[in-house]
Structure formats: C-alpha cells, structure tokens
Amino acid sequence: MKEIQGGITAPEGFYAASHAAGIKYKGREDMALIYSDTDCITAGTFTTNVVKAAPVLWDSDIVHSDAKVRAVVINSGIANAATGKPGMDICEKTAQAMSSLYGGNRDSVLVASTGVIGMQIDADKICAGCKELFEKKADTPGAATAAAKAIMTTDTHKKEIAVEVELTDGKVIRIGAMTKGSGMIHPNMCTMLGFVTTDAVIDKKLLQKAISAIVDDTFNMITVDGDTSTNDTYVILANGRAGNTLIGDEGEDYRRFYEGLLHVSEYLAIQMAGDGEGATKLFECHVKEAQNVADAKKMAKSVVGSALCKAAIFGNDSNFGRFLCALGYSGADFDPAKVDIWYEAAGKKLKIVENGMDAGYSEDEATELLKSEAVTVVAVMHAGSAEARAWGCDLSYDYVKINADYRS
Amino acid sequence: MKEIQGGITAPEGFYAASHAAGIKYKGREDMALIYSDTDCITAGTFTTNVVKAAPVLWDSDIVHSDAKVRAVVINSGIANAATGKPGMDICEKTAQAMSSLYGGNRDSVLVASTGVIGMQIDADKICAGCKELFEKKADTPGAATAAAKAIMTTDTHKKEIAVEVELTDGKVIRIGAMTKGSGMIHPNMCTMLGFVTTDAVIDKKLLQKAISAIVDDTFNMITVDGDTSTNDTYVILANGRAGNTLIGDEGEDYRRFYEGLLHVSEYLAIQMAGDGEGATKLFECHVKEAQNVADAKKMAKSVVGSALCKAAIFGNDSNFGRFLCALGYSGADFDPAKVDIWYEAAGKKLKIVENGMDAGYSEDEATELLKSEAVTVVAVMHAGSAEARAWGCDLSYDYVKINADYRS
User: Which site among A298, A378, B195, B209 is 20 to 30 Å from A188 CA-CA?
Assistant: First the structure.
C-alpha cells in the first residue's frame, strides 16, 4: 500500500466537481459532485440519531438496496434536517436533476447535506447547481481538492487522501476519500460527511462488512463535543474499473483492501479530530492492557470527550486527576490503584501517574510536552492485553465563539 | 412547609464552624464543621465513579453501617482523590483528631474533601484545623453561612437553605442543608458536596429511601460539563432532637418530610446548575408528554448536557436544530415529526418548533427571550404523559478560562 495523489478521483473512472450555488454561503463553493462513468455498488454507515436528516433517509434506502449508483451530490451550508416532507422532496428533485443529465434512474444518485438544521434548501438553486457540476466534472487532482473544499463548513482545512494497493493477481486498486467535519462530532457516528471511491471489484456484503468495522475503530473513536449529528454519513462507491479478480471472501486480497480502507479512514478521522472547532491541538488517548476491547474503547473515548480534560490540554495544565476521573466514569471497571498514565508527545514520554497516584514527575517537563501540537495520554490499566485509541481535540475559547453564534 | 433562616444550624442541636487552615487556598476559610450535640443516624449517596476519593470510601462505610455520627469535617482546595493509602490515613487522622475533642469513636466522624485531585493533604494542618473548628462551633445562622462559604471551590456564591415542616402530631421538624458545586458536575452524582441536617426522628431505612429517590430527581438531573467527579457526596444527619413521633412508615408524616427534603434538594441543585463554571444563565429543559419517565429524563439531560445547545444558549442564538439533535441522540425513541419545542423565559412562551419543523417564529422575539437569566426549553413529545426536568447552564468563554488552568 502506498499513498498517492488525486483524492476521490484517484481510482479509475471517478470524476469530481465543485460549484458556488449560493445555497447559504456567499463567495465560496458550496456544492460538490462525485461521479463515476460506470455503475457502482455501495456500502455505508449513517447516524444513529433518532432525528435523521432527509439525505440520510434517502441514501440509506439506496445503500441498503441493490440499486447501482453513479453520482453523489453534496451541499454545505444547510443540513436539510428537521425539514419534514419538503426536505425529502429536495432529495428527490436533486436526484432527478442529476440523473437526467446522464440518463439514469433517480436511485442512482446519493445526496448529502451539512450545515444549519431546520432550514429548507432552495430547489431551484440546487437543481441549477447539478447542471453546472455535471458540466464541470473532471478526473483531476485539482477537481478532487476543490470538491473536498466545497463540502467544508467550520473546517479550517480540506481533508482528502488516496492510496493504491496491489492485490495477489498483480492488479493495482485505488481508494480515494474526502471528509468534512469539525463540530457536532461524537461517536455513532461523528458529525461528518465522508465519501470513499474505489475501482476495486469487491462483493457488496464484504464492502459493507469492511466499512462497518473500520468506522467503529476510526470515526466512532473521535469526538469533538459529544454531539451526535443528524447527518452523519460515510459511504463508499466501488465501480470495479480496476478489473481485479473479485474480492469475494475474507482472504489475502480482502485483508489488503481492508488495510487500505482502514488507512484512509483513520487518517481522515484523525484529521477531523485535530480540526475540531476551535482546536489548537490533537488530543489522543491510548488505553493499553485493559481487560477487554469494549472497556478500552469506553475509557479512551471518555478521556478525549471530557470537557475538563480537554480544557486542561488547552491550558497545558497537567491536571492528571481529570484523566483518572474520566477513566473512572467511563462505565468500564478497573482497579484505580493499578493505573499508570504517561504523556507521549513530540517523540518523548513522561510518566505522570503510577499505581493511581502522582508519579513524582517534573511539572516543567509535563508542561513542555503538553505544548506540543499533538498530545497522547496513555493509560496502562495492568488488567489484560486489550487496547484502544480515541481522538479528540482541546476545548478552547474559540469553540465557544464558533458555536455561540454559528448561524450568523 | 416554610423556608426559615439558619441553614445547617436551623435544626435543633446542630452547630457549624469554619476556619482558614491554609490547606491550599490562601487568605480564605477552607475548612468547615457540622456538629451535633446528640448522636445522628445517617443516610447518603456517593459518586458512581470507579475512582472514588478517600473520603467517599471512608464515609460510605460509616453511612452504610449502624454507626452513630456526631460530626462532619470538610475541607476545600484538595480533593484527597487518587491519593492511595496516605489519603485513607488522612481520613483516619482527621476523624481521630475531631472525635477525641468530644470523646467519641473515630467512626462518629464523616469527612469530605473537594478540590484538586492527586495532591496529598497536610495531616498537621487538618488536625490543627479540627481543634479550631471545635472551639469555634456555634448554632447561629452566621456560623452556618460561614461554613457554606468555606466549602466553596470555583462556586461564585454560597448555597444554603432551611425549611420547617409541621408533622401530624403537631411537632415541627427542621431540615437545613448546604452544598458546593460548580464544575465537574454531571449526573451520578453531579460533582458536588452536600450536607443536610435534620432534627426529625425517622427510621434509617426510610431516610435512605427518601434521599436516594430525591437525588435521582434533583442532583442527578443537573449537569455542567458531563464530568462525574470522584468526590460526589450527599449525606443527611438526623439527630432526633425535634422529639416527634417516629416516622417509621411511608404515611403522611413521611410524605411531609419527603416534601421538605425534596424542596431543599431541588433548590440547591438548581442553584448549582445556575452557578456552573462560567455560567451566565440557568438553562432548563422540561420534557413533556413523553412515553415514559426514563425516556423523559434521558432527553432532558441530553439537551442541557449538549455543548452545542449550551453554546447556542450562551450566544442567545435560537439554533433549534441543536435541541432536536440532542433529543435525537439521547437514547430515547420518539417520532421526530411529532415534536413541538417552546422557549419559556421571563414569564413568556414562544413556540419554536412544530411537528419537528420550524414553527415560523420571530427571531427577534426568540433572541429577546434567550437573553433572560433563566431559559427553559420545553419539548413536547406527544407520545404519552410522562415528564422530566433537567438543569444546566450555558457554555461560556469563562468555562474554558476557569478550567484551562484551574490548578494555578
């Protein structure tokens, strides 16, 4: 496996486009298209929130059916959530407008929206946007990057990646992906939109199995603010253009494909965590030697999700009691007297807690480590061999500023 | 029932004292004593955090035994959590120092600590403080208020209340209480210390039943930052000095006592929520017409605990999608298309959401209501007859400021 250029257009037969449709934002592009010249099978995971945005309802119907997909139309600015029947109509009109351009069915179009909840999207603007996108589509790295930028809301930078993987038959398959996500981010899934393209030939059930497992270990292990959004979506489109032997069982080729998909997903998840609203640094928790993986995940997520831990990380304040406290209310059981805690940052390690108590470390050294742009809190439970990692960011003044008046 | 003066010294035979022991804070009182001239039965609830502070372990042993209690010694500044065996020794030395002053057993003394986790308390300072406290104790409102101030950490004001209740035998019993709590506040229990005194004659099992049920509806329904502390404690001491007929069953006298204890507990819980770190206003969620109480509680807590809802309340921004979103990820099931949402503030009501969508309200009116010092979001689920209320506060710049460098 190696990283390559081109984002979502890196796999054969995939095109991207972006456009300024003026849906809500002024002076920037706010619509994106992913297009495949060949039918795609799909798989994906969606928000567990009871309040699901219209595009989530539209897409999950298609992804969980046998329908073949050709296009994904995405807009930023308005989430099309809490929009009732008119919101569903927008999905249908968008799909109609796009599919008519290449002569396909409405259920060959996925739609995705992100932004303010409760506002309706102007149908005329989004349908006119579809036409522009289709005309502008290109299979170039520049088009992919422009699309990754057009789907951003409060994100401070675009998030895209691509890899290529050689299979056992000597064929090379490619996986490209882009995500957006900055606030309203919390497991199940984090508030995010993510789109993956691949030219691999793979069985649909295996594709779903891979993406579900990978989301659990990546996007479901990041948190920015504990709010699970109405719009979370992570979908993969596979058009089979690489012409490899079908990946039809969980053998070596599946393992290689899985590794590639895990790599792009973990990269993007960590990018989102580190770009959390107002974040000044990436905050990782790595729980080791836990009695089981479920407990390790609970504990890691509890630490990176704690407002008090996040505020301490922002302040470069080694208030280690807060890490112990967050481990303690995670719902996992453990012996507090056995816990060691380390900081890992900038290639250095420092033991902070030993056997559940102050390890007698240097505050100056701790403060220096905490000033790094990525800080890992390692909790060693001495209870077994399971481990888990979770990612978040610090809690800064700017988080409050961004969210106190997001709509204006 | 009526409110009276005197806080924890309002019931017969109870004394209070405060003292500047210099445990961590400079230039302020940081120790408090509650003392009864007669043996007390006790009941209480404690943190569910796996990492329990030493005083929690000490107190829960005593409260869950038949030991009679005479005194509670409290310090602020250091939490005596994550302190191992030396931390337990501090509890024992404190109890020894205090009980020797009135010739009692060590298990007649409860201890409580709040402040930074992971630091050890100086035994000499706290034992010397016990002597000062015992000498200064008084059964006056001024002594009670001074004690309520001495237990504060980041609280901006003291929290105390007292009521008297007439029983069916014509005897009047009194209930006094004080709490501290401002950050690290979240259900099960909120991060808080709370102490209740009463001169009622009541069965110990009934006392425990009452306090457990009341904590579920009051302190477990507030949240400031989602962090469940290592030190949460809410205990009641009953010395029987009112001489009433024993409250020995769940009849009318129990009902009256319960109502009194509920009143003081709810008052203090709301005081704590409104005094959350950096709070500029009290933020209540009242869920109505839910299918059951458990779901109603989940939804109400989810809304007041949401960082995005809290930030919107701080910014007076009627971003109603965030309320719907937080209801949706609460874990309760409901039909989003049936939900109405209202704001209630300053004696006015405004419907924001109707049938899960924008109700077509005036943004100016909404902004005016949100500027009130107490804002209630009422969610009407149209699914049944259950209801619940939860309390929190907004998320402000000052929350981050307070918690980014709390220890210095």
Answer: A378
